[in-house]
Amino acid sequence: MAKDKSMSVCCPACLEDGTFRICDLWDSALDPDIKERIFSRDIFRYSCPECGEEILVAYDCTYLDKEHNFMVMLLTEKDDDTTIETTEYNLRVVRTINDFVEKIALIEDDIDDRIVELYKIMLEDQFEDERPDAKILGIYYGGKSENEKNLVFFIITENAPNCRAHLSLDVYETISRQFKESADKFGDTSEVGRDWAIGVLQNSFSDNQK
Ligand SMILES: [Zn+2]
User: How many Å lie between the centroid of ligand 1 and the Cα of residue 12?
Assistant: First the structure.
């Protein structure tokens, strides 16, 4: 059951404590606007009653999408050992607001997040070859291109202009075929991120060496 809660937030601008009303379960069936409020990050936006400063505050919560049979849990503590109950839904655990938003955008567009994570590693390698001085902070899914034939990704770097990459749906299918076996072998898909993808690629590489 969803529980409305509140948490205390200290404003970074005026250092005044305030109360932030949060909710630990977002069910897309019960709340048709919720996806938009997640994409805009409104559910994480705290505005200080003292000075009006707006900040994003991450907190533990779960998004449930019965239609797509997915559950996405945001656990903000890196070493959180919360026991995750087994669920009938496809479960994904994420650690940051950006990852939470990205998973839900992929579910909404019917894109397999496992293929996306594998692609990101390939993109990272390619980008580092082309621009060895650029330090990548993250690569995020930015939706489908206008003609719906490509998936758009934003490459966020520390020290170079950010850029975009396009993954055609043909290449997406190719990656999907190529790594299906390895990806399926990695049965625990609750945390599908960079580490998971590196594991699959290494496994697939060592299989090819046999
Ligand atoms: Zn303030």
Answer: 7
Q: Give kind and range of the element (H or E) at residue 73.
A: strand 70-74
Nearest to 41 by CA among 53, 27, 59, 29: 59
* Claim to verify: residue 22 and residue 100 sit in the same structural domain: yes
pLDDT digits (tens, 9 = 90+) for 165-209: 999 999 999 999 988 877 777 767 889 999 999 988 888 777 666
- Residues, CB within 5 angstroms of ligand 1 (ion): 11, 13-14, 16, 48, 50-51, 53
Span 94-131, pLDDT tens digits: 999 999 999 999 999 999 999 999 999 999 999 999 98
Could you say which of 88, 108, 128 is where a domain stops? 108
Residue 20 belongs to domain spanning = 4-108
Please tell me whether residues 101 and 166 are part of one structural domain: no
